[in-house]
Design a protein that fits this description.
This protein is 38% helix and 25% strand. It has ten helices and eleven strands. Helix 4 packs antiparallel against helix 5, helix 6 runs parallel beside helix 7 and helix 7 packs parallel to helix 8. The longest helix is centred in the C-terminal third of the chain and has 19 residues. The mean pLDDT is 83.
Length: 328
């Protein structure tokens, strides 16, 4: 609780002094004139006599409550409103078959990527994030949203096999850029995560990067996978799951060019820890200062003091005129 006019509280001792002076002045006007009161000093005092102080105490409490009400007590509920716009981010995730490679053991590449992306989402607060997945085709798994709970659930549902196999990097970029095309955010970012080579003749990756640049979208490209070979699971209908070695090849020159075209950066992640560090770096690179305005909503509490003040004053008057009436 706070007060809109706290200086009014300084009147409390003044009000007490005035009440005390009024009581003293009233006590000098005798109702019955007698020569001396010494003869009554030794008389036993009854319960009413012992409570003679009560009306005056009630009056002081009433005066105090009234002064507090005049000071305008309030409770303040503050609400923070974001004034500027943050960053709009499109995460474009490769879910081609090669993302099942186990060079990030014990998990495959996709599982590690999903875990790191979950952590990245948790680190954002005022930024809208979209999720695009691609293989031979591309589609928006989740549009731009501030509802990170929904985004987490959509990310959990991502798995290899949702789309025909292939690696359409250009189409993935184009779909992510389309998600950001109408964005009015101060900064627009696309994070591309892939482990292969563009092998689907749809949209040329460089052409998609040029479109991103024209719309003010910066691309951070991440190549996922170790150099050389990596174990890959193969499910046999009779023999069960077996493992074979596949060659890991990432078109790093293409990814570097895509990033350079949009004034972004290219990273290579050859371990789960490296991938986590890359996302931490991107998180730090894409921090935006958001100006905020604080709105304060006040709730008036004067009524909670005026009503008790009135009741105390009435009690004072009634007791002084009846049960605790003083003569003289």
């Amino acid at each position: 609780m706070s007060f809109l006019h706290p200086w009014v509280l300084l009147l409390i001792p003044v009000a007490w002094a005035a009440s005390w002076a009024a009581r003293r002045f009233a006590g000098r006007r005798a109702s019955v004139q007698i020569s001396s009161t010494r003869l009554t000093l030794d008389l036993p005092r009854g319960r009413r006599a012992r409570l003679r102080w009560l009306p005056f105490a009630l009056r002081l409490l009433a005066v105090t409550a009234a002064v507090v009400a005049l000071a305008r007590p309030v409770t303040a509920n503050r609400r923070q409103v974001v004034q500027g716009e943050g960053i709009d981010i499109a995460i474009v995730l490769d879910i081609s078959g090669s993302m099942r490679a186990l060079d990030f053991q014990p998990d495959d590449r996709l599982a590690v990527a999903k875990r790191v992306i979950h952590r990245f989402i948790d680190g954002r607060h005022d930024d809208r994030i979209a999720l695009v997945v691609f293989a031979a085709k591309a589609f928006t798994q989740c549009p731009l949203t501030l509802d990170y709970g929904v985004l987490h659930r959509f990310l959990d549902e991502v798995k290899v096999g949702l789309i025909d196999d292939g690696t359409a990097i250009g189409l993935g970029i184009a779909t992510g850029v389309k998600r950001l095309a109408r964005s009015k955010a101060r900064s627009k970012v696309l994070i591309l995560l892939t482990d292969g080579v563009n092998n689907v003749p749809t949209v040329d990756p460089v052409t998609a990067a040029d479109a991103a640049r024209s719309l003010g979208v910066r691309i951070y490209a991440i190549g996922v996978g170790r150099e050389g070979t990596a174990p890959y699971p193969v499910d046999h209908p009779v023999l069960g799951r077996r493992y074979t070695q596949i060659e890991t090849h990432i078109d790093e020159k293409l990814l570097e060019r895509i990033a350079e075209e949009t004034q972004g950066q290219y990273f290579r992640a050859q371990s789960s820890d490296a991938l986590a560090r890359i996302f931490e770096m991107i998180d730090q690179l894409e921090k935006t200062k958001v100006e905020t305005t604080i709105y304060t909503e006040y709730r008036q509490l004067a009524g909670f003091f005026l009503l008790p003040a009135l009741l105390l004053l009435i009690a004072d008057i009634l007791l002084s005129a009846t049960l605790l009436r003083v003569l003289p």
